[in-house]
Amino acid sequence: MRIAIVAIGRLGRGPETDLVKLYVERATAAGRALGLGPVEVVEVEARKSGKTAEAEALRSHLEGAHLIACDEHGRALASRAFAEQIGKLRDDGARKLAFVIGGADGLDASILGAAQEKLAFGPQTWPHALARVMLAEQVYRAVSILAGSPYHRD
User: Fold this and answer.
1) What is the arrangement of strands in the sheet containing 2-8, beginning at the earlier edge strand?
2) Is residue 54 in some structural domain?
């Protein structure tokens, strides 16, 4: 199952970009034997501002995917539950999983409505760059858990 983190905007250079790249590479390497991956980050630029224009720019990258929208009103999952969710999707035959992160104003209602699930990073507000880092790290952690690596919470 391919996994994509699809996000509005480009991070550019900086420590957040380096961390996202590190976790994506680790998740891809560890996930191969599990039928998970590659893991990729897709950065999308809208031609116009606003959630509607962002939704239009996102749509082609979400086709055919099990869609999980990152949204403050979503469900916060513990790492093990997050891993189990990814494993279940893979086992149920999903070919592509896409996590989508919107712009500064969040995701358009059409994307939220199309999402099979909504994921929250807790009640705090996080910068988009850190949301990508946290999501990439959790995908890597999920792959590690599914691979049977020791998990410090057990």
Assistant:
1) 39-44, 2-8, 96-101, 66-75, 117-119
2) yes
The CATH number for 89's domain is 3.40.1280.10
DSSP 39-54: EEEEEE--SSSSHHHH
Q: How far apart are CA 152 and CA 154, in angstroms?
A: 6
Residue 80 lies in a domain: yes
Give the structural domain span for 76: 2-146
Residues 90-128 pLDDT 10s: 999 999 999 999 998 899 999 999 999 999 998 888 888
Do the domain assignments include residue 134?
A: yes
Given a cut of 80, is residue 151 above it in pLDDT? Answer: no
On whether residue 119 sits in a domain, the answer given is yes
CA gap 68, 18 in Å, rounded: 24
Q: What is the pLDDT of residue 47?
A: 86
Distance CA 152, CA 102 (A): 31
Give this prediction's pTM.
0.94
Number of domains in the chain: 1
Could you report the per-residue pLDDT of 5-22, keeping only the tens digit for each? 999 999 889 999 999 999
Asked if residues 61 and 97 have their Cβ atoms less than 8 Å apart, the reply is no
